[in-house]
């Protein structure tokens, strides 16, 4: 899955200004400025508002709608044809649904956790009929009462992701010796490391806030500034800020360690035994992707049938295998492939979860504070 799908951390109020700044600053060479592949999410596709009940239009991250085995089996069982379109950020999805006025033509969407809160507040979601979702019992109880949608009224969390460190084992052992266990490792070895951090202000600033003992969602300007100062100490070790263009350099040893999102880090680790993905034992950010029904959906019955189908353990296991994310489905955990199951960092332990945070919606004025320090950090303005 393209890592650009994690743009969900940039809220709409933030995106209009922060992304404009990032584009202008890309020429400085510290941002990942690779062009988006043709057809990679966000296509302007029109879907019929009035639909027959034998077609289900889905709008989601590419990894969920490209799994043909999962789709074909659903069609075989129900007779409902699935048509999927992809987006590469929650903001693209939100903008399309808002512009449609409830007439987007889609009956299933895959908003990430914080976006559920935003869409609920905008009255863009249809409440779930749990009588049509008997497989909801397969979702581990702790995921059905998360802050973004307590009681799973509008959404069902299906995939679990984290932010951690991917590293080249041989390079780390040869130059430093000890392998990483926590975020402070970056600071302890800043004079020896060559690293990348994700091109994401909430994640990077949040990580520094966390190291300083504060919440990822801190609103106090002095604490945000302290995080900025903490990150400045790392600048000699940082090759660039990128959310995608780190894989080949890490595999070759040109980079030693990269801050990455779990699906990408674990996918590379499954392909290359010299790459490991680790969750810092002092905690990190944890996030979920969910299933929801947008307001104005044409095929409510088909949407519930899809959600119930995806919550089957064997289907959830296939999805976890495809995207290298953890699963919220407690029965699916025993069915995922052995190589994926063997990766300890696939899902955070209870101890790490207790020390971790979920990035939440912040008010625009607070986001502007983050943006200001992020711009200073990434342009070296001090």
Describe the 3D structure:
The structure is a single chain. By secondary structure, this protein is an alpha/beta fold. Helices cover 39% and strands 15% of the residues. The protein has helices spanning 12-25, 62-65, 68-78, 90-100, 113-121, 169-175, 184-188, 201-211, 221-232, 247-252, 262-271, 300-310, 313-323, 338-341, 350-355, 364-379; strands at residues 55-60, 81-86, 108-109, 125-126, 155-168, 195-197, 238-241, 257-261, 275-278, 286-294, 326-327. The strands form two sheets. Strands 4, 5, 6, 7, 8, 9, 10 and 11 form an eight-stranded mixed β-sheet that branches. Strands 2-1-3 form a three-stranded parallel β-sheet. Helix 1 runs parallel beside helix 16, helix 8 packs across helix 9 (221-232) and helix 9 runs parallel beside helix 16. The longest helix is centred in the last third of the chain and has 16 residues, at 364-379. It is globular. The two termini are 35 Å apart. The model is unreliable at 1-42 (pLDDT under 50).
Task: Provide keyphrases for this structure.
alpha/beta; 3-stranded parallel β-sheet; signal; Sperm_putr-bd; transport; Spermidine/putrescine ABC transporter substrate-binding protein
